[in-house]
Structure formats: structure tokens, C-alpha cells
Amino acid sequence: MTDTHANHLIARYFYERSLRMRVVLSQLPFFLTVALAAVLIGILHPERLGSTNLLVSLVLTGMLLAACFAVPWEKLHPAAFLVIPYLDFVAVAFFRDGILTVLSSAVILALFPVFWLCASGFAPKTAIVSSALLTLILVWIPVFQLGQVTFEALLRPLLFPFMMLGFAVAVVVLTMSMDRHRVNLLAKDKELRAALEESQLRERLMKAIVDTVGVGVVAVDADGNDRLMNSTQAAIHALGRPHDIADPAEKELLLFNPDRVLLPAQARPVRRAINGESFTNYQVWIGDGEQARALSTTARIIRSDDDVCEGAVVAFHDVTDMVNALSAKDDFVANVSHEFRTPLTAIQSYIALALEAPESHPQKVGQYLRIAERNAQRLGGLVSDLLSTASITVERSPSNVTQLLADSIASAAPAAAANSVVVDCQCEEPLLAMVDGVRISQVLDNLVSNAVKYSPDGGTLTVRAWADGTDLRCQVKDTGIGMSTSEQAGLFQKFYRAGTAVERGIPGIGLGLMISKTIIETHGGALSIESQQGAGTTMSFVIPACVIDAGLANTGIGSSQP
């Protein structure tokens, strides 16, 4: 039995009981031993039962046990019960005198009151001294009764009092050690209970918090088992439950990608998370039919100090209304764009007819018509882009990027002069790449014009293009008003306008960067942004494996179109 188990039993069957019951339990061993000794005497020497001293001892022992039951010790001084073991010494003295030499070990009964006094925890020094003195008196009483008080007679029984002295010291030391240990255990128990209560409080608080938020939250361990799930997530989970499975695993849920194709197990949010992948705004659909809901999922990994994945927390945000609203907006834009296309086609046709007959109008009007034709073509391209950015295609051909960049800077020159923006062009020459010249020109026009527009207070615009091996890199850097982190997050969304642009009345409809990003990604590249509010913005893109040898410069490449 371990010390902890023993202490638990002692606490349960002794310390946790009332003071009256502890007094009774402390006196009971002495009473039972005296009773057993009386039974033995009655069997071996029944004539001794008539001894007055023996009867006084037995009656006193019984009365002391009765007093243990009857006296309300809780209402008295905390050490009042110690009168019982002191009276036990009296009972032992009468018992010894009553049996004479029938039981030579009768004086050993003193062990019980000695132990009780020394284990009580009250006045340990007094308990040791009184135990030794009372035991000494017990062994010297017969000497004085016989009247043979000699040095030898007094010395002969001293071994037993010294044994009792050692026993008393040992009991006091052991009791003090146990008391300290018990106090420490009680303190630790109190701390553990407090920690448990705090943990339970935190658990209730966490449950209340996760049930309050308007998104589904689930925490899983490294094996994908649910550790915490709020009520919102439980409702979402129920939407994806197949009709024939009561408690499906994630791989069995009705989870689909944005195109409503069933997701494979490894592409599902929780599985991706426990595989160590963190992600944001991963869109899925759950459920089928009219109950299907669009979800935006976000996951973060729980890692140990050793960087080992211990689980993950995945949030599920219902974005069905937003997805439906975006779809309705796209349908509206597509319908409006179709309506624009018919009259725009007529305008372009009549302008083309007018330009085919230059003799029918003055030369100055011809210039106006060509400007109108160019802008009508640009408007036609914008209408096409509005219909669907996903339909943007590229037709690669050898293109002079240096010339494309020069054309974009020339187009933005009037606006740059109006905003007092100094343009610095740094471009390798010649810089040839296998790209769609028209589309890349569109990207450059957007980036350069944006840099000028967002520098209304003047500044410097640095445009760079260079070959990084076979990769084409381009950078457009301004010292304008810049953007905050939150504004950058929505920069490539359709129709998004930064708050600073709206406040300053900077023109635009929020399509240029989204279209530019689509064009670059269609080329297999990436468009990125670095911006600091009040310090300017840097837009960069890279198109991999497109730069071609400069020896092709003599093949007739020299314009923005192949």
C-alpha cells in the first residue's frame, strides 16, 4: 500500500470523522485490550476477578469509554479529551495491582495512553515527559508498596520507562512528520480542487464562448477525433449527414467543392488540418438539395513544444447568402453587359464605316473618329471582361516587353504630369518574351495608371522589367498614399475600392487589378502587392519560363502586338 493510499484511508476513517468519534476510536483499543485481559484472567485465575483493584480498573475503563461517547468534546477546549489517556494510566495502575503477577505484561497497557498522548499533537514535549514519568510511577508503585525502597530496587525496573520514553519520542516525531505531510496533502488537495474548479470554469466559459460565436467551431486531436464542437457546428454537421449513417466520419459527410463535385477524403477541411495544413477561406458546400449551404473554412494547427501536430481547430462560416448575392450580382453585371454590347457594336460599326470614307468628312473629324474608335474598342474589351473574367484567354507570341512598357508609360504621361509624378523607367533592352502582348499591355496599363492615380500629391513612379533566367519579372513602385492591411486583403476582388480611394474621389470601378491578376495567372504567373499606408505601393508580377533569346529581335518584333 502506498503512502498516499494509507494517508487517504487514515483521513477517511479517522481525521474526517467528528471529534467525539475520534476520541472513541482512540480509547477503544485500550478498552478492548483490558476486556480481553479480564477474560483471560477469568479463564486462567477466576479467583482474581474478585480483586477490588481489578474491579476498580474494569469499571474505570468502562466509564472512560462511556465518557468518550457521552461528553460533547466539540464544545470543550480542543485538548480537553486528553484527560482520558491520563486517567488510563490510573486504570493501568489498578489493573496491575489487581492481578498481581497473573499477567506479567500488564504494565504494557501503558503503551495505549502513551501513544494517544504523543500522537494527539498537543504539547508534544509535555506528552513525552508525562508519559515517561507516569510509566516510571507505574513500575515504582510495587517497590514502594513492598516497603523495600533501595537503590537497586528502584534501578531494576527503569528499562521499561526508558523504552516508553523512546517510544514517546518516536511517536511524537512520526506524528509531527505525518501531520506536516497531511497538511501538505491538504494544501495540495486544496490547490488541485481550486485548479479543477478553475479548469471546469474555463471549460464552461469556453463552451459558452464557442456557442456564442456565429460560426461553427470544431477542435480535433491528431487522429481527427472531435474534442470540442459548438452548437453551430453540430447543426452544420447534421446538414452533411447521409440519410443511412447516424454518426458519419468526415470522409462520409456530403461535402462538395464550389463546382458541387464530391470532395475526396484528403481534400476535406478537417483532414487537411490534421495533415498539418493551415488555410483560410477554403470554400466548400455541405449537404444536398435545398438544404445545401456554402461554407468558408479556416484551420489552424495545434503544435506541441517539439513542433509536433497535436490536433487542429477548424472554423466553418456559413457564406451561403454572400455566395448567392455574388452570383446574383454576376448575373446582373452579365445582363447589363449584354445590353451594352448591342449598342456598342453599332457604334463601332458606324465609326468604322465613317473611317472607310475619309472624303465624307474633314480631316479633323477623322482624328476625332479614330480617338472614338480606340475608346470604343477599349470599352468593348471592358464589357467582355465584365461578362466573365474566367473566360480570359491568352495567345502567346514573341512580344517586345520594353516597347509594351514604353507604351503604357506614354499613355499615363498626361496624368502623371497632372499629379506631378516623376516616372523612372528601368528596363532591359531588348526584353523579349513569349506572352500575349495585348493582355500584358492591359496589365501594364492598369498597374501604371493605378500608381499615378494613387499618387495625387506627387511623388516618384519607378517601373522596372527584367529577365530572371527565363522568368519575366516586372515591378511598378510608387510613393503615393499606400494601403492598409485590411484594404490589401480585398484588393483583387471584383468591384473592390479601397476606402482611401473613395474618400479622395479617385476614379475607378474596381476591376483593373482583378483582371490583371487573372491575366497573369492565366500566363502561369503570380501578381503580388507590398504596401504601407502613407508610404506607397509596390506591385510585382512574375511570368515563368517565357523570356526568349534577344536574337529574335530581327524577326520583326517591335510593337505591343505580335
User: What is the number of helical segments per DSSP (H or I, 4+ residues)?
Assistant: 17
Tell me the radius of gyration: 49 Å
Number of strand elements: 13
What structural class results from the helix and strand content?
alpha+beta
Q: Quote the average pLDDT.
A: 83
Question: How would a textbook summarize the main sheet?
Answer: 6 strands, antiparallel
Residues in β-strands, percent: 15-25%
What is the straight-line distance between the termini? 92 Å
What is the chain-wise order of helices and strands? HHHHHHHHEEHEHEEEHHEHEEHEEHHHEE
Give an overview of the whole structure:
Helices cover 53% and strands 16% of the residues. The chain has helices at residues 3-15, 19-44, 52-70, 83-99, 111-119, 124-146, 151-155, 159-212, 231-239, 269-274, 320-356, 363-387, 401-418, 437-453, 485-489, 499-504, 512-522, and strands at residues 216-221, 226-229, 255-256, 279-286, 293-303, 309-318, 397-400, 421-427, 432-435, 459-468, 471-478, 526-532, 536-543. The strands form three sheets. It has a six-stranded antiparallel beta sheet with strand order 2-1-6-5-4-3. Strands 8-10-11-13-12 form a five-stranded mixed beta sheet. Strand 4 (279-286) and strand 5 (293-303) form a beta hairpin. Helix 2 runs parallel beside helix 4 (83-99), helix 6 packs antiparallel against helix 8 (159-212) and helix 14 runs antiparallel to helix 17. Residues 553-562 have low confidence and may be disordered.
